[in-house]
Each structure stands twice: as C-alpha cells, then as structure tokens.
Specification:
Low-confidence stretches of chain B: none
Number of strands of chain B: 28
Distance between the termini of chain B: 5 Å
Strand content of chain A: under 5%
Strand order of the largest sheet of chain B: 1-28-27-26
Mean pLDDT of chain A: 80
Largest sheet of chain B: 4 strands, antiparallel
CATH architecture of one domain in chain A: Alpha Horseshoe
Number of strands of chain A: 0
CATH topology of chain B: Methylamine Dehydrogenase, Chain H
Largest sheet of chain A: none
Distance between the termini of chain A: 116 Å
Oligomer: heterodimer
CATH class of chain B: Mainly Beta
Number of helices of chain B: 1
Low-confidence stretches of chain A: 364-369, 807-817, 819-826
Radius of gyration of chain A: 50 Å
Helix content of chain B: under 10%
Number of helices of chain A: 59
C-alpha cells in the first residue's frame, strides 16, 4: 500500500512538473511527448489525454517517430481506427526505418487487413532504407517463404538472422527455404540450429527427418522422427515419417536378405502406421503407407522353423501357419489399399497397388481359357491406366500381372514406347520370350536390358539360364546367376544359383550357402529348396542337417499342391539315403533304399549307396550282390557314373574279398572303361598291394590317360609308395627305392609340394643323420597348403628333423656353439619362427603344439635353460598334457610319453625331484615298447641321483638293464650314471647292451664306438688316469675322423699329460690333434687355438703362439670371451709392440678386463700390481 | 427438430461400412429395408424398426462396396464395388438382374431417377455420368463434363474432374455431379446437355442431394468441411453450412425438406436446421469416420416417425429417431 501511495505521489509530482514545463515552454515538443508518455503508461483512462499530447508533439516536431508510433498505438488499440493507425505507423517507420515496434505493428495491421503486397512493399522499403531494419528483413523473409519465393526468402532471412541470430523461427524458415531449393545439407544445418535454440521445434525435427529419408539415411531419419514423437506423441507427420523410415529400412534389409530383421522392423512400422490411421483416418497416404508395410510384410515374412521340425505333420503345420501369416498381412494390405482408394479414387497408383495386393492373395493362373473377361487384378490396373495412360510403371505392372501372353507383350512394348531406356521392360520381355521358347529374341532382350542397367537382377538370372541351356560353360552361368542373387535376394534366383552350383562345383562357396538358407525363408513349400539345402549341408560335411533337410524336402514334396515329377522324389530319397549313410545311420539308409526298391524306383546312384550301406552293415554277401547288379548296369550308364561304379565295385571287392578277386574282376572289365583318371588310381593302388604284378599291363595302359599335372604328381606319389611296399621285404619298407623314385619325380615337377613333403618324410624315416639336413631344403612350406590330412605337413617334418638333430641349428649363437658339420642355410631363429607360425595357424593342432614344445625344449637346452623359456615350457607342457587326455592309439601315447618326460625334466631342472619322479613314473607306466620305457627309467635314475637315493637308483638301473633299448645314446647315458656313482656292478651288462644296440645300424657303428671311447676316456680322465684316457680318446679320434671336438679333447689331454710328465712327445701329439681339430672344424672352434698357442709356445715357437692367440681372439663372440683370453692378450701385447684390434689400447686394460671377468684369480691381481708399480 | 439415438449396432459388418441407403416398402413387403455396403465385400439388408435385424448378406463383389442405390419402387437395388462392378439385384430374392461392368475408377455414387426408369452412375475418371436404362440395362447416355477451353490435351483432366457423386432432381429433369476439384456440374437430362458448373467448393465433392421440396435447391458436402446450398438453375450459391471439422462425406435431406443430415470424417453426424441455417444437433456416437447417412423415405405401413441411419468406418450402424 505504501508503495502504491509512493508511486501515486511520484506520478502526481511528475505530472505536475511536466505540466508546468509544458505551460512554461509551449513550443517545446519534447515536453509534450514526455507528458504524453507519462500519461500513456498510466492506464486506459489516461490514453486519450496522452494521445492529445502526442498529437501536439507530432505537430510541433513532425520528425518525432516515437510520437507517431504512440499515436498509431492509440488509433489501433483505443480508437480501432485502422486507417489512421496505419498512416501513423507508416509515418513512424518512414521517419525511423529501424523502429521495429512500429514496423511490427504496421505489418500486423496490414496482415490483419489481408494486404499482403502492401506489407511486402513496406518491408522492402524499410529494408532498403536501413540495413539495420532487421524487423523488416525477417518480416519480408517470412512473407517470401509464404509466397514460396524461396531464393529471395533465403537472402532476407539470412540478413535477418544477422540481426537476431537466436530467433528459432528465422532459422526454421531458412531451413524450409533451403529445403525447397534442394539445398539439403544447408537445410539440415538451419533446422539443426533452430532445434538447438528451442528443442521443441517439432516442425524442424520432422523436416530434418524427411530430408534424411529423402537422402537415404534412414537411420538418422528414424532418430529424428522418434525425437519428434517424444515432443509430440500424437503428431501424424512424425508417425508417418517414422513408419515410412522403418519401411524403407526394412526394404534395405530385405535387399540384403535379412528377412527376420526386416520383419521386426515392419511390425513396428505397422503399429505406428495403424496408430496414425486412427489419428488421420481420412488421409489416403496414411492408409497407403499402412498397406505398403503390410504388403512388404506379406512378401518378406520368413519361414524360420527349419531346424526344429519333426515329422510331416509338424512341417505342414508350420508351413500352414507361415502361409497364414503372410496371407493375413496381404489381406490387410488389400483392405488398407481399398480404404486409400475409397478416399482418393482419382489417384492412379492406388489402383495398381490394389491390383498388386489382389495378385499376391490369389495369383492368376497362367492358363485361363476365358480371354474375354478381365481378372480382378488386371482390371484394377486398367483403372490406373485409364487415369494415367502415359505412366510406364502401370504398363509394366500390367505386363507382370496379366496372364495373357499377348497382353503382356503388348504392355511391355507400350512401356518401352513411353521410355526407350526402360531396362526392366526389356528384361521382362526377355523372360516372356524365354517362356515362349523364342530364345534368340529373349537373349537379345536380356542383352539390351543388361546394357541399359547392369544393376538389374533379372537379366543376369535370365542370361544364366540361357547359358546353362546351351551347356557352354556352367561357370559362366553360375557367375551371372550369382550376380543376380547378389543384386536381389529372390528365392527363385537363389534356388537357381544352388542348382548351378551343384553342377559347377561351387557348392562349398559361402555365397551358395547363404543363398540357399535365404531361399528357405521364402520358399519353404518348394521341395527343391530343401533338397538343395541338404546338398549344400552335405557338401559341408554337416550330414545331420543334410538328413533333416532331405526329410523336409520329402514332406514338402508330399504336401506340395503343385504336381511335381516322380523322379524328383527319387532324387530326394537317394540323397537322403546317402546322407544317412554318411551320417552313420546306415540302417536308416538301407531302409530308405529298400523302400525305393520296392516301389521299383532304383537308379544307379541308389544302387551304389545301397551297396556301400550293406557293406558298412557287414552284410558282405548282399553288398557283393548289389555290386554285381551294378556291374551289369555299367554298359548302359553314362560315362561318369560308370566310372564311379567301377571305382565302387573295385573298392568293395577289395575290402570284402581281397586283392585277388579284385584283380580278376579288373582283368575282366572292358578296357575302354578303364580309361579314366579315377579308375587308374584305384587300379594302381590295387596293383601296388599285389606282389605278382598281374595288372602291370592294365595299369601302364591306363596311366597314359592322366594329363593334368596334379594327377601325374599324385600318381608319382602313389608309385613311390607302391615301390616302398613292393621292393621292401617282410614288414620293412624299402625306403631307398621310394626315395629314388620321388627324387626323380621331383626333378620333373620341382613344384610338387606333396612330392617334396613325402620325400622329406621318407628321408627322415631313414634315420640317417646326414640326410636329415636335406629334409629342410626338400620340404616346402606352402601357405594354406591343401595336403591331404593323411600326409604329414611340411611343418611337422621340418620340426621333427630339427628335434632329430639337436645340433643342426642354433638359436642364439652367442650361447651355444654348434659342432654339426651339416649347417643348414636356414637359421635356427627362422626355424623357431616356422614352428611358431604353424602353431599360430593351427592352435587346435596337437601335433603342432607337440613339435613346438620339443623344439622349444631343445632351444632352452642350448641356451642353458633360461628362466623365461623354462616357465613358458612348463606352462605349455602342462597345458598339452591336460588337453591331451584322450591319447588312445600308440602314436599318441608315445607323444604323451615324450611330453611327460619333458615335464619331468623341467621339474628336475627346477629342483622339484618329487614331481620329476612322479611324472617319469607315469611315463614308465604307459604301454609302450620297452625300448622307449627304458628312457623313463633312465629319467628316474637321474631323479634319484639328484635325490641321492641310492637304493632306488640301483633299482631303476636294474630296471633299465632289464628293459634294454635300441638307442645307443640311452646306454651311454646309463653308463655315465653308472660311472659317476661307481656302480660297476652292471657295467658289463650295459656294455653289452650298447654293443647290441649299435650292431643294428652298420653305418653308424663307428661313430657310436667313437662316442663310447670318448666316454671311456672321460671316465679315466676323471679318475686322473690320463694315459689311459689319452688312449681311449685317440681311439675315438681315429674312429670318427671328422669330429673336431674329439680332437680338441685329445689335444687337451695330451697337453695335460705333457704338463704332468714334461714329455715333449705329448706336446707334438697335442699340436697335431689340435691342428687337426682346426682343420676339421668348419669354423674357429674356441679353446683349440688357445691350447695350440700354449703348446706351440711351450715348444718355443713365439710366432705361432702369437698367430694362434689372434685366431683364438676371433673365435669367440665378444660377450663370451673368457678372462684367460684377455690375460693372454695382455701377455701378447707385452711381447709385441704391434697393436691388435680396435679395442686394445694398453696392457692394463687387458688385465683389468680379465679381473673384471674373473676377480677370483690371484694371478691377474699380481700382474696388475706389477703393472701399477 | 431433433434426433434421438435409438439403437447402435456394433460390428454390423466385418469391416468398415462405406455406403447406406433405404429400400422403400413394396406391396408385398410392408416395411422398408436398410441396405449397407462394406469394405468386407458384402452388401447387407437390415430390417429396421426400433431394432436392427440382419435380413440377408449378399456376397459376390471382389472388392469393397463403395455405393448402394435402391429403386424407388423398392423392388430392385444396385451395389457398386471398387473394381467398378455394379450388381443390380432383386431385393427380396437376391437374384442378380444385371451386372454393369465398366473400367475400374469409372463407377462411384449411384442413384435411380425418381421415376425409376434410369440409373445414374458417377463415372469417376471418365469425367461423366453414365445413365443406364433400368428396363434393358443398356447404357443410354453419357453426360460428359466439357473440357475447359483453356486446358491442354495432356492436362490431367481425368484426375481434376474425377466424378465422385451424382444426384437427380426430384422432378427428374436435372442431374448434378460433383467432382474432385470441387466443382459441381449440372446437366439437362432430356437434352443430354451440360448446363453449367456450380462453384464454391475447394475440395472433392463427395455427396450431393436435391431438396425434396424444391427441385432447384441442391445440397453438397465436400472435403473442405462445408455444406453448400446452391440454386442449381440459377447457378448461384445460396448459403453454406459450416461446423464440421473435417471432410463431409455424406449428406441427405429429410423427407420433409426442413433439415439435412451430414456424416463427416470428424466422426460426427450433424443435423442441420435449414430454417436456422445452423447445426441443430451433433451426434458423437460413432468412433470413426461416418461414410453414410440416410433418411428413411416416407411411406410403408404404419410408419409415422422419421428415421435416420448412419454407417461408419467403426463397422457400426446407428439408428436415430427424427422428429
């Protein structure tokens, strides 16, 4: 109250003051204006007085725009005198074009009066006068948008936005203008700005969605519409947009073949469309959209129950429910189209839609006799054509729907009249001609269609049938059909593709697999679909699903309403029997075939399967009978099936009654039938197992038929195997002859991977060390080699070879010095890489893991068991052992044995003797030959040695002696243990055991003897009996004249002897041996030169000492040089003034390095002390 | 005047009901029948008094029934479906008397002339009214809407002038038809001559009816939501009735000529008092678009009170007492 009073007082004071001013200065217009404004703001009853003052002010100062504005307000609001108000506002605007209040008021008044052109003129004038008259620009912009003058509107709106950039209306209008101009990105941006400013702008959101749909980015469009519906759930435009976006997306899905996905999208779309029909039931487009969705649903609803059906009844039931779903959707589409048509009968395309829906519900039969009456669908199309006869789409639809061939041709030709480059018309015309048997014309039409639009599926499919009928090349047909399928996943095309694939050996390609699975969704009623699906599954070795598919094909054939030929059923049954047989259900196969037989529908293939099934069941006699039946049929067969039958008969005969009767049968067969590659292989195989070579003539004749390189190589492989068998005696194989043959064959076909691998394998099996190194060069590792699983892969052979000769390769040369003469060209690193690659390629392959572990162990040993490798190995072996619980055959249990020993060795190295013992014990309990079990006990011996368990050790030793082994290395290891622990008791046994074991291999006898002598020498050396040690080692040297290490050993012993006995004779012997070692070794063996230098020095040859020391220096890698070498180098540098290498500056340096490496040696310290002094 | 809801029959058809008319009583049949046509491809006859009882279901159409018409004698009736297949049948026996086939899109609303000698069919895309002789069932006249002089030959005349509705004047001398572009064309039947256009509607004219009292007065209902009254002879708009919020799909004049009823896609049935030129009543018992309204013709035994029937997309028939 007080405030009001205060204001009241304030007002009266001001009023008085102003009134006084007006009175005192009657010529000053501003006083009048101020007074007027004070009164104007006061309230309604004051307005008239205010207007008087404004009038005075305006009279006194005609340039006062504001006064005119207030007058305008007065006239328009208080007096309702529009004309005067307009004049006042006009005056105000012309005085001050920036006056937005007057401008807006003026425009609103003009708008109310409907004077649009005047409004535009006012805005133009104001905007022309002042660049800051933003109100005028925005008004003008809106007006131009209203008048659909889009490009002008864009200019005005852009200008207006500069003034008021936060006005969402302006942005929205600008977006609309851009959209209408076709500038969609700009439109999206403008709408986006509007939404940013006010996120409830439904119009902008919906239009953005529409633009997205138009541009084909359906997902974005759908998002926009969903957003719009969140703002305004009952908005028909948004619902319509959302439904059509979903429809478009689902059509895209269908095009890609994702029917189930499309169906779920369509279900959503249908719901939305339905709700929008409730909102706007009198919009034909809404009904049409709903119908479109339903129609698409009816066409694409997939049949998805293929996997779970049992029995004919279930199948027909599911088929029926699938059909019903489609039918219901189609009927609903028809009704909705009718509603749309009823609402807008002048829209031509709806007639066509109704026709399409009607056609989908009950297709016109092709041969209806009565040409005079129109079928419903045809008639409805006529409605479209009556309204818009020049629309080629309607003609095309008529051509597709009509049952009358002449009419169809006419329709297509009319379509072409209207649009010459109508590819689809040409395509359908081609199809029509094909049906009529006019192949030439059909081909021409297809060619035209394809050249106009290569992205049309039908001509490709048409071409493929064309090619296949001409039998030109099935590959070409397959390719063009594949293209058709890729363009459009239509069941008909897909079935055709699968059919062509069967013929052209593309059955395994994933395209065919996908296609037939999709075809199943759309054509489950057609037996051929299931049959082909079965064939594809069978090709993929999935016999169970193949059987299921064939059964479904059976049901489909039985429930089919269309009359299908009986041969079809026979095919399905035979396929079923074959799949059953392959699946392992032989009884079922026989059952199936006997059913067929009873009905007298047996064909050659059925007979073949029958024979095999009987044989598998063990009914050999019946199988032979069947084979006999087959043989009688052979002369009447086609060549390919005759060949297959011959192969089958031979194989059956061989496995039932042995090679003799097979040979007789082959000899009886007509020669011309044997002229085929397959038969040749069979005959050759039979021949290989036959010692009497009765078939030699037949084989050599038939071999001439082989032409392709693969076949010839395969045959060489077979021949070499046959030589293995034939030239061997008893149980043993003649490896040499096989190797010889393979060598020759390889000379002819250097690229033969399988030949190479087989050769490598045979070489490895020969167990001759020098050959092993050839293996690596022989074997060829081919990426993705498709060697038959029965053969060893190159990886495995190379890996085995690496294990066989542990010295072949070195992993890291600085840790280990290889003494093997047969250095391979491949480094060890690359071998390990190879193994790892193999393991990575086939992580499931137990062999790969096994070979990899063995190689890794070898490398760990070379590197003196570094910690990280040990832990890797431990993990891998334990994994391998737990994984490979299913070792059953002998070969596998040998692998397990090896892995167990590996693991035990690892535990031993880790100091865990108990687990070492238990693992070795486990290994010894495996059922293997004694010669292998020996090693388990050897391992146990070692474990007990580590445990210091004397009694158990002796027990195990005895066990070893009892078991015996063929491997000399085992005996030597045993002897080492014996000698270490002074267990002389069994030494004679082990001695004789060793001698027995080396008798077997004549060639290696000497080298093993040498090793034995070395061992004896070392034993005596340990016992400080150097003379006898020298004797033995000298013997070893003479036995193995190529082993440098032996000579080094001998040299060292001689040196020691010379030192002990001061006999220069030993020195010369020493020098001789060491020199020999130098000669024999392919590289600088360490120690040799050092010893030699010392020996030479002792004999007084300073020069030689010098030279040899230098050689020694370079025979070490920088990391591994021993302390003594540095010390010697120091001595050398003292003697000779010449400097050695880059890294030898002065003598203290040498000594320091030596001390650094071996600080415990007092000698070095003393020298250093001397040097310091 | 007022309407009172008597009865509403839900699910009278299996799908939307699109057309309704009354079949007058005959000598053998003392009461008049209600004839309805539906999207479910059937035509049904109903005995209507205070209740609605199904008399018969006629099948045979292969698409939705868009229009039904009854002969003034009450003996025969006709039904037309979306595929422009007109079936003329005997009401009592359901014998097919004739089938009139025309290209689809060329049969829409139908009406028998007051004397019963002719059947006029709105010709849709043929932009004409087809007149059939009811004795021989031959096409006797095609009253063509003349092509505007300014139009080019390839102009979409068939779409613009698509004829949706037709009405006979009570004296049988005039025929009027309503087109998709909102114009109404008036013809002289005797001379088979086009007379003039009546303009004023902006959207398709779906329903036409002449006043029973005055052969000059023509009522029209249009998608622009208005009902117009024209002087059909004088070529002038007498008045317009506004009140529907959506398309006017159907109108009918009461037998006494004092009122008209209209059905609309705003789901209402309105009764218009012609004296007041305003809506007297608005019935909202339908839940979807009302496709047909029909007053029961006078006559028949024991019938005093007026009846109005309305049919709708919600599959129901409603019956009102008109007084």
């Amino acid at each position: 109250m007080i405030m009001v009073h205060l204001q009241e007082d304030n007002f009266t004071i001001q009023l008085k003051h102003l009134e006084e001013l007006v009175e005192s200065h009657p010529d000053d217009p501003s006083n009048y204006f101020d007074l007027g404004r004070l009164m104007w703001d006061r309230g309604e009853e004051w307005k008239e007085k205010a207007a008087e003052h404004f009038l005075k002010a305006a009279k006194l100062n005609p340039q006062n725009g504001e006064a005119f504005r207030y007058l305008g307000h007065y006239y328009s609001r208080v007096c309702m005198d529009t004309q005067r108000a307009l004049k006042c506002y006009q005056r105000a605007v012309s005085i001050n074009p920036d006056d937005s209040l007057s401008g807006e008021a003026l425009c609103s008044l003009l708008d109310k009066e409907g004077k649009e052109s005047l409004e535009v003129a006012v805005c133009r004038e104001a905007s022309g006068k002042s660049p800051r008259a933003f109100w005028a620009f925005s008004r003008l912009g809106f007006l131009l948008v209203h008048q659909k003058k889009w490009s002008e509107a864009v200019q005005s709106l852009q200008y207006a936005i500069r003034g008021t950039p936060s006005c969402a209306d302006l942005w929205e209008a600008l977006g609309l203008a851009y959209q209408r101009l076709g500038m969609y990105t700009a439109a999206i941006k403008s709408y986006g700005r509007a939404i940013e400013l006010e996120n409830t702008r439904v119009f902008a959101v919906i239009e953005t969605g529409n633009i997205f749909l138009m541009l084909g980015s359906y997902r974005k469009g759908i998002e926009q519409f969903q957003h719009a519906l969140e703002i305004w759930p009952q908005n028909v435009c948004a619902q319509y947009g959302l439904a059509s976006g979903l429809l478009a997306l689902s059509q895209e899905c269908i095009k890609q073949g994702a029917f189930s996905w499309a169906t779920s999208l369509l279900e959503d779309a249908s719901k939305i469309a339905k709700s929008s029909t409730a909102l706007a039931g009198n919009m034909p487009c809404v009904w049409k959209l709903h119908a479109d969705i339903q129609l698409t649903y009816a066409k694409s609803f997939p049949w998805t129950e293929s996997g779970t059906l049992e029995g004919e009844e279930a199948f027909s039931k599911s088929l029926l429910s699938w059909r019903r779903t489609r039918h219901i959707a189609a009927v609903s589409a028809k009704c909705s189209y009718q509603r749309a048509l009823h609402l807008a009968p002048w829209q031509a395309n709806i007639y066509m839609d109704v026709a399409v829906a009607v056609e989908l519900i009950c297709p016109i039969e092709v041969k209806h006799e009565d040409h005079t009456s129109w079928k419903l669908a045809e008639k409805m199309l006529l409605g479209s054509l009556l309204l818009e006869g020049e629309n080629h789409e309607f003609w095309m639809a008529l051509g597709c729907i009509s049952g009358d061939k002449a009419l169809r041709q006419h329709a297509f030709i009319r379509g072409l009249h209207l649009d010459v480059s109508l590819a689809s018309a040409w395509a359908y015309l081609g199809k029509l001609y094909k049906e009529e048997g006019e192949f030439q014309l059909g081909r021409q039409a297809f060619d035209r269609a394809r050249s106009i639009d290569p992205s049309l599926a039908l001509p490709w499919a048409g071409m493929s049938t064309d090619i296949s009928t001409r039998e030109r090349s099935s590959d070409e047909a397959y390719d063009s059909c594949l293209r058709a399928v890729q363009i459009m996943p239509l069941a008909e095309f897909q079935i055709g593709l699968a059919k062509l694939a069967v013929r052209s050996s593309h059955l395994l390609s994933p395209e065919v697999f996908g296609a037939i699975r999709q075809a199943l969704h759309c054509a489950p009623w057609y037996p051929e679909t299931h049959n082909l699906n079965g064939l594809v599954s069978e090709g993929r070795h999935d016999y169970q699903s193949a059987v299921a598919s064939y059964r479904l094909a059976h049901y489909a054939w039985k429930t089919s309403t269309v009359l299908l030929p009986h041969s079809h059923l026979v095919d399905i049954s035979v396929n079923l029997a074959r799949a059953l047989c392959k699946e392992g259900n032989v009884q079922g196969a026989v059952q199936e075939l006997e059913d067929l037989k009873e009905r007298g529908l047996f064909d050659v293939e059925g007979l073949q399967i029958y024979a095999i099934s009987l044989w598998k069941l063990g009914k050999n006699d019946q199988a032979l009978c069947a084979a006999e039946d087959l043989a009688t049929c052979i002369p009447t067969m086609k060549l390919s099936s005759a060949v297959a039958s011959i192969c089958l008969i031979c194989s059956l005969l061989y496995s039932i009654s042995g090679s003799k009767s097979t040979i007789n049968r082959i000899l009886k067969m007509p020669r011309e039938l044997l002229q085929s590659a397959k038969v040749t292989f069979i005959i050759s195989a039979v021949d290989a197992l036959d010692q009497s070579s009765q078939l030699q003539a037949v084989v050599s004749r038939s071999r001439s038929i082989l032409s392709s390189q693969e076949e010839i190589m395969e045959m060489h492989l077979l021949i070499s195997l046959s030589k293995l068998i034939r030239n061997g005696y008893g149980q043993s194989l003649s490896l040499e002859s096989g190797i010889d043959h393979l060598r020759k064959a390889l000379h002819m076909y250097p690229n033969g991977t399988s030949l190479r691998n087989m050769l490598g394998y045979l070489l490895l099996s020969r167990k001759q060390r020098e050959n092993n190194h050839v293996v690596q060069r022989v074997c060829a590792v081919v990426p993705f080699d498709q060697i038959k699983p029965d053969f060893r892969s190159a990886y495995e052979i190379i890996g085995a070879e690496a294990v066989a000769c542990h010295a072949t390769t070195t992993w890291k040369s600085k840790f280990f010095i290889s003494t093997c003469k047969y250095q391979s060209l491949q480094g060890g690193a690359s071998l390990m890489g190879l193994m790892q690659r193999w393991f990575r390629l086939e992580p499931w392959n137990q062999n790969a893991r096994y070979v990899f572990i063995l190689n890794l162990l070898r490398i760990a040993r070379e590197a003196r068991y570094p910690q990280h490798l040990m832990s890797v190995l431990k993990r891998m072996t334990s994994a391998a052992l737990t994984n490979e619980l299913l070792f059953n055959n002998r070969c596998e249990s040998y692998k397990r044995f090896q892995l167990l020993l590996c693991s035990s060795e690892l535990s031993l190295l880790g100091g865990d003797t108990s687990s070492c013992v238990s693992l070795a014990r486990e290994a010894s309990n495996l059922f293997l030959a004694d010669t292998y079990t020996f090693f388990a006990h050897l391992q146990l011996c070692r474990a007990h040695v580590a445990e210091d368990n004397h009694t158990s050790l002796i027990e195990e030793l005895n066990q070893c002696l009892k078991l015996k082994t063929d491997y000399p290395i085992g005996w030597i290891s045993l002897m080492i243990i014996e000698s270490r622990h002074r267990l002389q008791s069994g030494s004679t046994f082990s001695d004789s055991g060793f001698r027995n074991s080396i008798k077997e291999s004549k060639k290696l006898e000497n080298s093993w003897l040498a090793v034995y002598n070395l061992f004896c020498g070392l034993v005596f050396q340990r016992a400080q009996d150097f003379l006898r040690a020298e004797e033995f080692i000298a013997k070893a040297c003479s036995l193995a004249a190529t082993e440098s290490c032996f000579f080094l050993c001998h040299g060292a012993i001689c040196m020691e002897l010379a030192r002990k006995q001061c006999d220069s004779q030993y020195l010369t012997m020493c020098i001789r041996s060491l020199k020999k070692a130098q000669e024999v070794s392919s590289f600088h063996l360490p120690f040799v030169s050092l010893l030699l230098a010392q020996a030479e020095a002792s004999l007084g040859s300073k020069l030689n000492w010098d030279r040899n020391l230098r050689i020694e220096w370079y025979s070490w890698s920088p990391e591994t040089r021993p302390a003594e070498l540095y010390f010697q180098m120091h001595l050398l540098s003292l003697r000779s003034e010449t400097t050695l290498g880059p890294d030898d500056r002065d003598s203290p340096n040498w000594v320091l390095r030596a001390i650094h490496l071996n600080p415990s040696c007092l000698r070095y310290w003393r020298i250093l002390q001397k040097l310091a002094e | 005047m007022k309407l009172a809801g008597l009865k509403s029959l839900e699910s009278a058809h299996e799908d939307s009901i699109w057309a309704a008319t009354w079949v007058p009583a005959t000598d053998s049949r003392p009461h008049s029948l209600l004839l309805t046509g539906s999207l479910d491809e059937t035509v049904r006859l109903w005995k209507v008094d205070d209740d609605i009882v199904l008399d018969r279901t006629n099948t045979g159409h292969s698409l939705g029934v868009v229009s039904v018409a009854a002969h003034p004698s009450g003996v025969i009736a006709a039904s037309a479906s979306l595929d422009s297949f007109v079936r003329v049948f005997d009401v009592d026996t359901n014998n097919t008397i004739s089938t009139l086939e025309s290209p689809p899109s060329e049969s829409w609303q139908m009406q028998f002339d007051p004397k019963g000698t002719m059947l006029a069919v709105a010709g849709g895309s043929s932009t004409s009214i087809k007149v059939w002789d009811t004795a021989t069932w031959q096409l006797v006249a095609t009253l063509q809407i003349p092509r505007p002089e300014s139009s080019k030959p390839n102009d979409k005349m068939a779409t613009k002038k698509f004829v949706l509705s037709v009405a006979w004047s009570p004296d049988g001398r005039r025929l009027a038809c309503g087109s998709m572009d909102g114009t109404i064309s008036v013809f002289d039947v005797m001379r088979s001559k086009f007379l003039h256009h009546l303009e004023g509607h902006l959207m398709p004219v779906r329903s036409l009816v002449f006043s029973p009292n005055d052969p000059r007065v023509l009522f029209s209902g249009s998608d622009d939501a208005h009902i117009h009254m024209y002087d059909a002879e004088g070529k002038s708009l007498i008045g317009s009735l506004s009140g529907h919020s959506s398309w006017v799909l159907s109108i009918d004049a009461s037998p006494d000529g004092a009122a008209i009823a209209s059905g609309s896609s705003d789901k209402t049935v309105k009764l218009w008092d012609l004296g007041m030129r305003a809506a007297a009543q608005s019935m909202t018992n339908h839940s979807d678009m009302v496709w047909g309204v029909a007053f029961r013709p006078p006559g028949g035994a024991g019938v005093r009170s007026g009846r109005l029937a309305s049919v709708s997309d919600d599959k129901s028939i409603s019956l009102y007492d008109y007084s």
